[in-house]
Amino acid sequence: MKQFFKSFFAIFIFVCFLFPQQQSTGTIEGFAFDQATQTPLIGANVIIMNTTFGAVTDADGNFTINNVPVGNYSIQFRMIGYSTITKTDVIVRPARITTVSAELSESAVESEQVVVTAGYFQQNDVQSMNTVGFSREEIRRAPGSGGDVSRIIMGLPSLAKVNDQSNSLIVRGGSPLENAFYIDGIEIPNINHFPTQGATGGPIGMVNVDLIDEVNFHTGGFSPTYGDKLSSILDIRFREGNRKEFDGQLDLNIAGFGGVAEGPLGEHGSYILSARRSYLEYVMKMFDVGTSVAPTYGDVQGKIVYDLSQNHKLSIVGLYGDDHNNPDLKAALENDMLAYGNQDIYQSAGGIVWRALWSQNAYSTTTLGYLSSKFNEDFFETNTGIHLIQNRSTEAAVSLRNINHVKFSSAHSVEFGIDIKRLMNEYDNFYGAFSDAVGDSTGAAVVSQDISANKFGGFFNYIVQPFGGLTVTVGSRVDYFSINDRVTVSPRTSLAYQFDEITTFKISSGIYYQNLPLLLISQNNANTSLKDPYAVHYIVGIDRLLSEDTKLSVEVYMKEYYDFPVDPSDPSLFLVDEVFYRYGFFLNHGVLSNSGKARSGGVEITLQKKLAEDFYGLASATFFRTEYKGADDIWRNRVFDNRFIVSAEGGYKPNAEWEFSARWIYAGGAPYTPFDLTQSAQLKRAVFEANNINGARYPAYHSMNVRFDKRFHFESSNLVLYLSAWNVYNQKNVAAYFWNEKENRQDTIYQWNLLPIFGVEYEL
Fold this sequence. Notes:
Elements lengths: L1 H15 L8 E10 L10 E4 L5 E3 L5 E8 L1 E8 L6 E8 L4 E8 L26 E5 H6 L7 H5 L25 E5 L2 E3 L3 E2 L10 E2 L6 E7 L13 E7 L8 E7 L2 E9 L4 E9 L2 H7 L9 E12 L4 E14 L3 H6 L4 E21 L2 E20 L5 E21 L4 E20 L2 E2 L5 E2 L2 E20 L5 E12 L4 E13 L4 E11 L4 H4 L12 E14 L2 E17 L11 H4 L11 E17 L5 E15 L5 E3 L6 E9 L5 E10 L3 E2 L4 H7 L12 E2 L3 E13 L4 E9 L7 E7 L4 E6 L4 E9 L1
Parallel strand pairs: 1-7, 9-14
Antiparallel strand pairs: 1-4, 2-3, 2-5, 5-6, 8-13, 9-10, 11-12, 13-14, 15-16, 15-43, 16-17, 17-18, 18-19, 19-20, 20-21, 21-22, 22-23, 23-26, 24-25, 26-27, 27-28, 28-29, 29-30, 30-31, 31-32, 32-33, 33-34, 33-35, 35-36, 36-39, 37-38, 39-40, 40-43, 41-42
């Protein structure tokens, strides 16, 4: 493999210098609007930095800049009374239109002497507390992300580092259950191929980065407009298609091969459509990445936009994916797999989005969504051939969400709305007898029932700026869950004080409830009376601009969890963490109780530099602790407790054609429960140390990913080649220990070895 990688790298470099570059131009167009009211801004100055190009927005907030030489630019939006915003990574391509939009917020600080502006970081956005934003280009080029929106986020200090094979988001001591995904305001249960049922993780991202306009990741203290999640919100906005001309793109990368098509829809709309199919089965044969049987998958996604009038816009968003994996017994034995079988999973999500601008001070967004996931799976134990799982599940939901924004004055505004959801799940599942996490025998079980539920929620958020620099937000949610017939109230508040244009202090606190997955509740009728777990967030932080494009952030957080489900018959286990080291909640639990608790706390330090000229980067360090208390009332480490994580990533763009980037992560070893080696050898199966749950730790994790990008600009088209290497120095990071029953000894499963990734993007 190393020899192949060297040869491929040599070919890559040769091709990069093969084609002559052509001088050509493109167009930048877009619009500017008020962040609080969504109304167009007339007369805003739009400047392409370090050039003589620019424009002024018209009566509809639109602008156009023609004949811009191809390349990478930063665009600055300026208007009196508003904070300056700078958009980086604006790629101008030959004979194509690049669309850039900007939400400008009213300036909260008045100063006679302005030394540094907050143009690269939206300091005055009150909703950006505990939030990190990424543009489409930042996601596309990130080393080690492979175009997966979840994997770029893993470089942030808020994320624990456990396993390369999964992109599960483990946020500030939480679990993969505790995250929500939204696409254009529609909640999506999972955005990954081969999703973990009942949770939010998976090995491969399903969302095509070429459809993304921007991503905002809320790591805590998020507003009451989001509900039913304990830890984080990943809010994705799809971009609109080109409204003036047809554009096409062909892709070949780790996610598969496919393409994107976009263009106008009459005079008042547009469409954009993506379709991809995997070719991983061929890559697996070429490189030793841990299996000889490759999964297959594909996805289709898109967005249609139509302007009903100047103030009313209708969008249709859709996402579909299908996944198939069928490792047999031979493959399981060759690759030390504990189980084998077949997987067929089908996911679909989508809906209608209505955006209405009611006046100069009020607008609303209403979404009607439909979600469906179908699982057809069978797994067998490799050593014995015992039928472990037969999963025939269908999970569907219809949702309605409405958010209204009203600005009464420059100092007072309010958000309010409703969430309504109908869940319709069907389970016809068999769970075979096996040994649990501490080696105790678990009997077989059958779950065969249809289970439905209704969710109703209402929320409000009041935002006041009593004087310059201070923003106070007070809000709450009220939610009802028909399964346990309970009403929960979730008050939340935050404060942000901007001392000057470079320093902001912030503090937030709130209560966050989350309903239990129906897959867990359905295993025993008595569990329908379980309470909803909840978490209390406490966050304090400070941001300081070291320069116009560099920001230092320090945050301290504490999360306290209550009313988690635990099994009195397995008092030392924490059920919600089992979705990580086991496949879902496939355990035969009896009647559960709500006596489980957890806690996490830590400090995060982040230094971020935007791409103002040639360099960009992000360095971070986090120190944290996360624990749980089971039914036996003993505090133990959670499986995501790395204790400390240090990461650094960045890139260099010497010109419009080349880019070099890298990411390095070092994380403390995650906890695990060790084997009782003597008992395991005698019984010739895994026997765990029941009195040492999560008491041992894996070796520390560290890895580096690098990437090289080369752009070719032709007269009317654009070609991008990139080569990336994951775990470039081939560190053998431990994924897990398992008991090798064939050799009757403890053995090791490693995470990814050196993995070369290449990609080709051709824009027509």
